[in-house]
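Collaborator request log, item 7. Partner lab (contact: R.S.) asked for a structural prediction of Zinc carboxypeptidase to inform their binding assays.
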Amino acid sequence: MTTVSRFYPIGTPGTPWGEQERQQWRTQIEKKRDYHTEVVSKIQALSDQFDIEQYGEISYHPERLPLFCLKSKDWSADKPVVLITGGVHGYETSGVHGALLFLETEAQRYTQHFNLLVAPCVSPWGYEIINRWNALALDPNRSFYPNSPAQESANLIALVASIAETILVHFDLHETTDSDEQEFRPALAARDGLDFEPGSIPDGFYTVGDSAKPVPEFQKAVIDSVRKVTHIAPADENNQIIGSDVVQEGVINYAMKELGLCGGVSDCQYGTTTEVYPDSPKVSADECNRAQVAAIIGGLDYVLSKLD
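Returned to partner:
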C-alpha cells in the first residue's frame, strides 16, 4: 500500500479555486497519448462484429473528440441490455482496454442472451492527458445528474436515456492507482479549498456496489472470477477499503445516484464498479485488462444463472 502527503502548488490553501486557478491548472496539461490511434482504431476494427454509433463529442476548443458506443448487431426488444462503460476517468487505462478486450474475445457468446451496449472511453480528453478530471477540472464520475456540467457525463446520460429496453446489468470499469493519492486527491482538496488528508491505496482488485441495492451474490461472482487473474484487495486495519467498510471480501458500497456516480446512470438490477490496481508489482497491464474481462464474465454468468 502507498501513503503519501503532498502540498498542491495551485491555489491558496483554504480557498476554493476560481477560473484563474483552473486556467493555471490547464496550462500545465500536456497530451501524452492519442485517443484516435489507441482507442478509436480499435473500435473501428470491431465494425464487423458490432454496430458502431457516435453518441456525442467532447468539445473543448480546439479539440473535438467523438464519443463512440458499440451495440450488438442482433439487438432485440426481447432481450435485456448489458451496459459496459470504461474510461469515465480517462487515465484509468484498463477500463478502456478491458472493455475493448471483452468485445474482441468474449462478447459474442453473450449476444444471444443480452443486448450489449458498450461505451469504452467516456472521457477521451482525460484519456489523452492521463487525468481524472475533464478540462473544467470537474470529475465526470461525480457529475452524473440532471443538467450535468460535464460533457462526458451528459452525453452518456443521454445515450442511456435513449435505450428503450431494460438495462439489467451495468459494469463500470475503473482503476485505483497510486496517482490517486499522489496527485488527484491533493488536487481535489486544493480545488475545493480543503485540507488534504492522506490516505492509502489498496493493493489489489475490489468492487463498489450500490448501497441502495447491493446484490452481494453478484459482487461475489465478480470477485471469484477476477481472483483467477489477479489478487483481491485486503481490508485495512479498520476493515475498510479507501475509507469505506468492507461488506464482503473485496467489496464496498457507495450511494451511486446520490454521489453522481456513473454506476447510478441507469436503474439496473445488477451493477458493479470494478477497481483494478495497475501499480502493483504483482500484475502487468495485460493482466489488468484481463481482470476487467474476468469481472464482466463472472457477473454475466451469474446473471444468466438467475435467468434460467
